[in-house]
Amino acid sequence: MIPRSLAEVDGIFLTALMQPKCPGVAVTGFAIEGEVHGTATKAKLRLFYGPGPAGPATIYIKGGWEESSEILRQIGIYCREPRAYSELLPRLGVAAPQCYGAIWDEAALDGVLLLEDLDAAGATIRTPESIVGVDEVHDLLLGLARMHGVTAGSRLPQGAWIRTLFEDSERPGSYLRHILEEEQLLSYLSLPRGIGIPEKLHDPGMIRRSFDRTLAQGLGETDLVLLHGDAHVGNSFVDAAGRPALLDWQCVSTGGWAFGVAYYLASALSTEGKRAAEGDLLAAYAACLAASGGPGLTADAALATYTAYLSYGFLVWLANSTSFQPERLNALVGARFAEAMLDHDMAG
Hints:
Blueprint: H1 11-18, E1 27-37, E2 41-49, E3 58-63, H2 69-73, H3 77-92, E4 99-105, E5 110-116, E6 124-125, H4 134-150, E7 163-164, H5 175-179, H6 182-189, H7 204-219, E8 224-227, E9 236-238, E10 244-246, E11 253-256, H8 257-268, H9 271-291, H10 299-308, H11 310-318, H12 327-343
């Protein structure tokens, strides 16, 4: 039942997918009003309904229909995200785009989502070039703290479909192993994005040593929580009421709380903004985490654990394909993480 391309989507498929959320609707047709390409294909559809109940005027359909999708499909992102929207987010009360339908096939590692048109709902989707204030970062971090707190300990969601952070890091041929090869690192640093990377981080050996610290932290975590898995600023939005939240839940996983906090905080703020607000933001997160049922953290422990994950953000944005993000954004975010690493002696 899962279309193999956007061209295979029809009214019958959309009707079947929407029926649980919009009983009685019948989609008789649609018009494609725009497409967004990246790790997945997202297309804005204007829907036409038959007599009777009607659903939203516009929605986004999301599926693994890119040229790179066959590689990414093996990671499980296309079947994981629909399941997250169906089984995890509603019971956790996590703020996210409204889901109008979801289908997945674990055997085929495939799935399709129908999601709220955030533009029509008055939301603003962030990019790394957005001017994001400290108050917005504070509020989103508190949202992460609540999700992390309510999924800590015995309340951690279980299931083989929810991956554990860095579980494939030692697998031959894994993505992390590939991008950490010296030849690959030198090729990334030779791109325009390398211009903004401090000279100290142009040493592949130093990059690998820094990431070894991150990997050791991630694999050694004992207080696991549910993670968004890809919580950079470009996967965030602010709703019409001014409340920040996250979209793109295709990398949902379990791991240490600081993975998501470091990935969001260091990607969202300028270097100067991060330096000025980082301590207060971590303190606010830690207080909310404890109040939500998560572990209690001292200021020193919170900072040390947060710091240990900074090289992940640097590595993946240094290696990020321009089919996922344009070069200027890879350069901008990579430089933010590089400066954060230097600020906290993570380069070495």
